[in-house]
Amino acid sequence: MKKILAVLLLAVLALAGCAEDQAETPAASRLAEVTDLTAAACADLQPGDSVDIAITPELKKCFWEGSRLEDWFQLPEFDEGNAPAHPLEYWIMLLNEGAVDINRIGGLVIESPWAETPDYEYGLMGRPLITVVQFDEFVHTHFGDVAVEHEIHDGKYYYCDGEKYYSRTAEGTYPDYYGLTALTAEQREDGRLVYTAQLDSYGFNALNFFYADEGSDPAVYDEWFAERMANDEMDPQDLAVLEVYGDQIATGELTMDEAITQMVIDGQTEGFIVGGGLTVTFYIDEQTQEPVYLAVSDWSVGD
Predict the structure, then answer these.
(1) Is residue 7 part of a domain?
(2) Over its length of 303 residues, how does the chain's per-residue pLDDT go in tens digits?
(3) Are both 37 and 145 inside the same structural domain?
């Protein structure tokens, strides 16, 4: 829940109405590609076997995009078999359901499946309205058979009347920076192929980036760069990116986020600052092609 406070500082509203009682069926998760990307390495696994997967550029791209679209920044921490029951643990992930793409600056493009609160209900006109049934469907799809403890609640993040949730917060659409560092696959006795992914979290702050439209005069970038350096305001890892792609960023050919993405895929992360990380155990459901999370842990520098 502590992560909710951070994402709210960067949240922007991106709502789209739909039928109230049933969310639209989303496209398969970008993370579903992991099954094809690891098929050869896992082909001979027997129940109880596991294998360490070689990290390829394709896998780095899959997890870089997938962890954003699935909003791994908001994953609750839990041990296997002990997923949390409190609704707030899932709230921002639930709001971000419907992320369909990543824009040029790294933000989520969300086609929200949730209805909008009408103007006559609780003064929350236009904010997402999610039924208890929809909430449970989301949690069961991504976390298994969890009995969420729905109750009447009037709080900072939502109002729940026992049947519907009326959001007081917006979707969190700004980027996270998780780079895949290790991946293990385990063939379980129940037939599931379970992955455990380890990811480093890079401490970029999108609010500090230089932004330019395509075809911009590079002199504007040069002035910004000189001022940042003179005032000792340049983040070292931003500088590591600009040293490689500064010319393209200056003219808008690339954004900072596109440059960071390419450097992660290419393995050029030596100058990046690791502020923490995630370990996520999950499998891809064969029917929904969505990730189902079995365990999540995170760490931060200083823990």
Answers:
(1) yes
(2) 444 434 433 333 233 333 333 334 445 689 999 999 999 999 999 999 999 999 999 999 999 999 999 999 999 999 999 999 999 999 999 999 988 988 888 888 889 999 988 876 666 788 899 999 999 999 999 999 999 999 999 999 999 999 999 998 877 667 789 999 999 999 999 999 999 999 999 989 988 999 999 999 999 999 999 999 999 999 999 999 999 999 999 999 999 999 999 999 999 999 999 999 999 999 999 999 999 999 999 999 877
(3) yes
Calculate the CA 58 to chain-centre distance: 18
98 and 211, same domain (yes or no): no
**Which neighbouring-strand residues pair with 131?**
164
Query: C-alpha angle with apex 225: 223 to 228, nearest 5 degrees?
Result: 110
Q: What value, to the nearest 5°, has the Cα angle with vertex 120 and ends 118 and 121? A: 75
Q: Per the domain annotation, does 23 fall within a domain?
A: yes
d(CA 204, CA 126) in angstroms, rounded, equals 32
In this structure, the answer to whether residues 42 and 163 fall within a common structural domain is yes
Helix or strand (DSSP H, E) at 63: helix 57-69
Give whole-number Cα distances, 162 to 87, 92, 143, 150, 184, in Å: 12, 19, 22, 7, 41
CB 177 within 8 A of CB 187: no
Structure token digits, residue 80: 């296997």
Q: What is the pTM of this model?
A: 0.87
Please check whether residue 165 lies inside any domain of the structure.
Answer: yes
- Could you tell me if residue 133 is inside a domain? yes
Same domain for 148 and 35:
yes
**Structural element, H or E, at residue 203:** none
Residues spanned by the domain of 146? 2-49+56-175
Please state, in angstroms and rounded to a whole number, the distance separating the CA atoms of residues 277 and 228: 29
